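INTERNAL AUDIT FORM
Audit reference: QA-55
Scope: verify that the stored structure record matches its stored sequence.
Auditor: D.O.
Record contents follow.
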Amino acid sequence: MQFGIFSVSDITRDPTTGVTPSESERIDAIVKIAQKTEEVGMDVFAIGEHHNPPFFSSSPTTLLAYIAATTERLLLTTSTTLITTNDPVRIAEEYAMLQHLAKGRMDLMLGRGNTGPVYPWFGQDIRQSLPLALENYNLLHRLWREDVVDWEGHFRTPLQGFTSTPRPLDDVPPFVWHGSIRTPEIAEQAAYYGDGFFANNIFWPKEHYQRLIAFYRQRFEHYGHGSQKEAIVGLGGQAYIAKNSQDAKREFRPYFNEAPVYGHGPSMEDFTEMTPLTVGSPQEVIDRTLEFREWAGDYQRQLFLMDHAGLPLATVLKQLDLLGEEVIPVLRKETEARRDPETAPAPTHERLVKAKYGEAAPRQVRPNANRGDNVTGTSPYQDTEQEPAFPAL
């Protein structure tokens, strides 16, 4: 089981002080949070993608590349990469570059996001969000696996003899998770390709996520990728921890009450009853998290949301200390003891390379000096009667 932190990159006023951090302060803070995630012994750090206030993470690959350079073993990922409004060619290029810079310590989670206006900002129609997600990922999947791609679809210009560069590290594409909170077609897509499925496990009762995960597992097996137990599942979760439950509730209540995403709605007690939010002692967080397995089955990745709702950096870092020192070690031990031996291990670059090559050395792509594409040297004009007028480079 991989454990880690994910952030939605919100910039929110601290209701106890009235202070709203600047963009620069929040960006610096998220780097410190990622570094702390590694320091306290967790495995994964994830950041979302947003293009509107009050969020700052419009360029997750830039941020994650910097974090990769300042950490040693932390696996870096996204909690959403927008497959609908990003060009899949750019996703292929940018995340392959990140994969090289991070030496394989990365993967990504694709999703449609939750901000409707982002579609026209990038020239797309929200009414086409699902067809966009399906078509764009089909192209991305091919770009990382085929050296030369001919492709034509509905939502972007065709590609002829196109090679995405750089090629994936060791010629093994980054592992992809598909994130969804409501759409069975996305669970179907994840199952079809044998990819991972991530349920953010934040705002809905467990029965909602349980149905999507069960559907994904069934379809994963249907497409021949392994048994339902071998399907790759990830879950989110929210927690606020203090040494005892009373302090946790007292400290977190003002943040909960004013949080843009759920403030001024159900009480904190009702919300924790209806959703996976846990506000309490380390043992309460352990007990609640272990319950996830009872309805989701064995899964491979557990991420916690802990830097939201205006919590100041010092408080978040203290939370990570408690999580890393008192919660994660127990969760590791207990999840391993309860794990079904048929459960697939968590995906890593090393495991993907081993699965593809066995004991052989992985392929290392080298540019071809011949005119044409940079891998095979095949000219896009080889079947035409006349070469182009411009000189070959």
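Auditor finding: record pair retrieved intact. The chain has twelve helices and 13 strands.
Action required: none
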